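lol forgot to send this yesterday, sorry. C-alpha cells for the thing we talked abt
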C-alpha cells in the first residue's frame, strides 16, 4: 500500500477530464488596505489535504476574497480533488496535472501544501512557470532537495515564502523584540524542550509522516518549526549538529498490529484506536478516496514499516558562538514547551502549554546584575491573539494576502534561506543519529552559515 502511494506521487497524471475548467477572470477592485485600485493576485493551490482545503482554501476565500483570487486547485487524487472542490466552494477549476493547471490558469502565486517529499518538485515547477511561491513547512526533507530549491530560486528569480506561523504569535514577537532591544545582551545558550502528547504523536504515526521518505521524520516535519524559531530569535545560522533519537512504543515495538483501524481485531485493546468513520470530514476527504492512490489515513500505528522517532535530543552549535540544547519528547501527556535564552546581560524564559490551560503567556526576565543596567526581575504578560496557533495564523495571513507590503521590523516573513536553515538542522540530526557522529552544515548545502543574518 505504501509502495503504491509512493509510486503514484512521482508525477501528476494527465487525467484532468471533467475536473478541468475555464479560468476565472478577476476584475480590478478597491484595496481596503491601501485605498487604491489594485488588481487581485491570482492564487492556485497544489495539495488538497486538511491544511490545504481549510486554511488556504475555504478560509482563504472567506477571509481574503477581497484581496486575492483563488483560481484553481490541483492534486493527484481525483476523488479527494472533487471533495476539496466541494468543500472550498465556488466551482473551482480542478486539475490532476500541475503543469497543465499552471499553463492554463497562469496564477501569480502557487500555494504548496502537498506531501513534504514533493514540495521541491512543486516549488520548482511553480517557479519555472513564473509563479511566486507560498509553501507550507517544511521547505523540503533532505539536503539534495534543498539544494535544488536553492539553485532554482537563483535561476528563476521568483519570491518564495515559507509559512512559519510559529514566528507570529504575539508573545513570541515580544520575545524577539526583547532580544533585539538588548535585554539579555548577546545570546550564548538556548534551552528548548518541546513536548507533544500521545494523541498528537498518534496522528503522525497513522499518516505518511511515519515514514522518513515522505516526511523526513519529526526531526524535519515537526522540529523545523522549533529550529526556525531559534534561528530567528538569535539571528544566526547553525554550523554543527550532534543528536540522538529513538522510537519507542510505536512501529515494530507494538504488541499487535492490524491492517488499519477500520480493519483490526484489536480495537478493544489498542490505546490508539481511532474510528475515522465517525469523523465526517476526514472520512470524506481521505477514506472514500484511498482507492485512487493507496493513501490510508487511519493506518496502524504499530505497522513495522514506521522508521521515525518518538524522542529526540540534539546539541546545535551556531555561527555566532551560541549553543542550543534541544529535545522533542512525544511519550508524554504534556503539550507545550520550555524555552530559555541565556545572554551576557540576563535570561529570558517562557513556559507555554501544559495544565491549566490559559489564554496568555508570561515571559520571565532575570538580569545578570553584574553586567546589566536592569536590576530587577520582571514578568511580562502577553495575551494570545484570536485565531489558530496562539493568534499567529491570522497575523501571518494578513501579511501574506491582505497587506504584503507592510513593514516587517521583526523579519517574521521567511524565505528560502530560512526554510533551508531550519530543515537542515533536522536533516543533520537524523544523519547524526544514524552515524553517531556530529554533522557539519557546510557539508550538506552550499549556503554558508552566517554569524549574524542580514
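and heres what i got for the seq, position by position
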Amino acid at each position: 500500500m505504501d509502495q503504491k502511494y509512493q509510486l503514484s506521487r512521482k508525477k501528476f497524471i494527465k487525467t484532468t477530464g471533467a475536473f478541468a475548467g475555464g479560468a476565472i477572470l478577476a476584475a480590478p477592485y478597491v484595496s481596503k488596505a491601501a485605498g487604491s485600485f489594485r488588481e487581485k493576485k491570482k492564487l492556485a493551490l497544489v495539495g488538497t489535504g486538511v491544511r490545504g482545503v481549510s486554511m488556504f482554501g475555504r478560509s482563504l476565500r472567506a477571509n481574503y476574497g477581497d484581496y486575492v483570487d483563488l483560481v484553481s486547485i490541483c492534486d493527484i487524487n481525483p476523488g479527494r480533488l472533487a471533495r476539496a472542490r466541494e468543500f472550498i466552494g465556488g466551482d473551482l477549476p480542478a486539475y490532476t496535472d500541475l503543469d497543465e493547471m499552471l499553463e492554463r490558469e497562469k496564477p501569480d502565486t502557487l500555494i504548496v501544501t502537498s506531501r513534504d517529499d514533493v514540495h521541491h518538485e512543486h516549488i520548482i515547477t511553480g517557479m519555472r512557470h513564473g509563479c511566486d511561491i507560498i509553501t507550507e513547512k517544511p521547505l523540503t526533507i533532505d539536503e539534495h532537495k534543498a539544494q535544488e530549491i536553492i539553485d532554482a530560486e537563483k535561476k528563476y528569480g521568483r519570491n518564495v515564502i515559507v509559512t512559519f506561523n510559529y514566528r507570529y504569535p504575539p508573545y513570541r514577537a515580544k520575545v524577539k523584540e526583547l532580544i533585539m532591544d538588548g535585554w539579555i545582551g548577546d545570546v550564548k545558550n538556548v534551552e528548548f524542550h518541546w513536548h507533544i502528547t500521545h494523541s498528537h504523536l498518534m496522528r503522525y504515526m497513522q499518516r505518511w509522516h511515519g515514514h522518513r521518505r515522505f516526511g523526513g521524520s519529526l526531526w524535519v516535519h515537526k522540529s523545523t518549526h522549533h529550529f526556525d524559531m531559534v534561528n530567528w530569535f538569535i539571528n544566526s545560522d547553525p554550523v554543527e549538529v550532534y543528536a540522538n533519537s529513538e522510537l519507542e512504543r510505536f512501529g515494530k515495538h507494538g504488541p499487535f498490529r492490524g491492517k488499519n483501524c477500520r480493519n483490526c481485531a484489536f480495537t478493544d485493546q489498542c490505546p490508539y484506536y481511532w474510528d475515522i468513520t465517525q469523523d465526517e470530514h476526514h472520512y470524506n476527504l481521505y477514506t472514500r478516496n484511498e482507492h485512487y492512490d493507496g493513501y490510508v489515513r487511519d493506518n496502524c500505528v504499530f505497522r513495522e514499516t514506521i522508521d521515525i522517532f518518538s524522542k529526540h535530543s540534539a546539541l546545535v552549535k551556531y555561527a555566532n558562538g551560541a549553543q542550543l540544547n534541544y529535545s522533542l519528547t512525544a511519550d508524554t501527556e504534556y503539550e507545550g514547551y520550555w524555552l530559555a535564552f541565556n545572554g551576557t546581560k540576563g535570561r529570558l524564559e517562557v513556559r507555554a502549554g501544559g495544565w491549566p490551560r490559559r489564554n496568555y503567556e508570561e515571559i520571565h526576565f532575570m538580569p545578570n546584575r553584574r553586567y546589566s543596567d536592569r536590576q530587577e526581575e520582571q514578568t511580562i504578560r502577553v495575551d494570545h491573539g484570536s485565531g489558530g496557533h496562539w493568534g499567529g495564523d491570522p497575523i501571518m495571513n494578513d501579511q501574506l494576502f491582505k497587506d504584503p507590503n507592510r513593514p516587517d521590523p521583526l523579519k517574521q516573513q521567511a524565505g528560502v534561506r530560512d526554510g533551508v536553515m531550519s530543515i537542515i538542522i533536522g536533516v543533520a540530526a537524523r544523519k547524526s543519529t544514524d552515524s553517531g557522529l556530529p554533522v557539519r552544515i557546510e557539508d550538506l548545502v552550499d549556503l554558508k552559515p552566517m554569524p549574524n543574518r542580514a
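Confidence is low (pLDDT under 50) at residues 1-36. anyway ping me if u want another try
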